[in-house]
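User: I've been trying to design a sequence by hand for this structure and keep getting stuck. Would you show me what you'd pick, starting by listing the structure so we're on the same page?

Assistant: Good idea, let's start from the same input. This is the structure you sent:
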């Protein structure tokens, strides 16, 4: 519960004890979409899943074609134009690029919403107001074994234990009955977990491919030894677990695997976080202001816990 000065810090209490307040089975995410292409896709997402997929693919292909056409004609036009005309054309190009980026961001966001719908996983409602946020009993299968391999699930479990400070604990679900946390912290954890999931899916896909290549060789024939694999430089020990596999990455490889594939994908992720929690920078400022001067992380945690105990 949020109240008093800590209310300004947007404290949120997340409870998983009430089944009467389960979010509805599925609805579109909390972020709004404005472009005509995204509005059409949103309507189809609600009415016809198959038409939604084809409409989004068609819109993305059209945007890609427009970009390629502009780039093909840009050079010849610039050679013949005067300086003031070039400035105007560059500005117009920038506006078109920003508009395309916004449309692609909204379409990618809806594709993520579509995936949640296919998994029958409800999307949580915005938490900007703080207070008590209740979740009922949810089937976690849609967020675990339906999207992650067994190898990846071990890292997901480790990630969750690390977040709640119970690494290695066997009483995880009991500890999740009631979680009280500042809204800024909730948003930060949500954003980090989204990035972690994105990274894990990419790494696991590569890991599974390399295991398959090691078993069947480059051309589908069963491999007789490590030299038969297209990834023959990987030693046998590197395949013992996904965690061990990741631990062998060098700095450049880690950077490449953790980089989000596109600016639009990054924007879609930020759009979801902001729609759920608000601007994280603003929330951080409010939280710091509510807690006042502190000399250590331990003192900040203690002040936060005391405020929660007082029901503020």
């Amino acid at each position: 519960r949020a109240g008093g000065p800590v209310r300004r810090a947007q404290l949120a209490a997340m409870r998983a004890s009430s089944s009467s307040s389960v979010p509805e089975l599925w609805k579109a995410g909390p972020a709004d979409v404005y472009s005509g292409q995204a509005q059409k896709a949103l309507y189809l997402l609600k009415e016809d899943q198959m038409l939604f997929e084809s409409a989004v693919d068609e819109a993305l292909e059209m945007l890609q074609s427009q970009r390629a056409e502009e780039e093909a004609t840009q050079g010849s036009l610039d050679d013949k134009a005067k300086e003031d005309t070039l400035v105007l054309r560059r500005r117009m190009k920038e506006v078109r690029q920003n508009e395309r980026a916004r449309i692609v961001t909204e379409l990618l966001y809806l594709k993520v919403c579509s995936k949640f719908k296919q998994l029958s996983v409800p999307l949580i409602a915005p938490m900007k107001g703080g207070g008590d946020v209740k979740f009922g009993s949810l089937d976690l299968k849609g967020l675990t074994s339906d999207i992650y391999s067994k190898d990846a699930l071990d890292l997901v479990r480790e990630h969750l234990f690390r977040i709640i400070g119970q690494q290695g604990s066997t009483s995880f679900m009991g500890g999740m009955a009631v979680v009280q946390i500042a809204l800024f912290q909730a948003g930060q954890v949500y954003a980090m977990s989204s990035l972690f999931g994105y990274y894990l899916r990419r790494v696991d896909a590569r890991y599974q491919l390399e295991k398959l290549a090691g078993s069947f060789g480059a051309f589908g024939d069963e491999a007789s030894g490590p030299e038969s694999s297209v990834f023959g430089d990987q030693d046998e020990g590197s395949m013992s677990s996904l965690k061990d596999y990741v631990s062998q990455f060098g700095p450049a490889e880690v950077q490449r695997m953790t980089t989000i594939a596109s600016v639009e994908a990054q924007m879609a992720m930020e759009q979801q976080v902001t729609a759920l929690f608000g601007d994280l920078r603003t929330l951080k400022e409010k939280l710091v202001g509510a807690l006042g001067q502190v000399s250590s992380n331990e003192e900040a945690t203690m002040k936060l816990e005391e405020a929660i105990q007082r029901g503020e």
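That's my pick for every position. To get oriented when you compare it with your attempt: Residues 1-22+125-312 form one domain. The longest strand covers residues 11-15.
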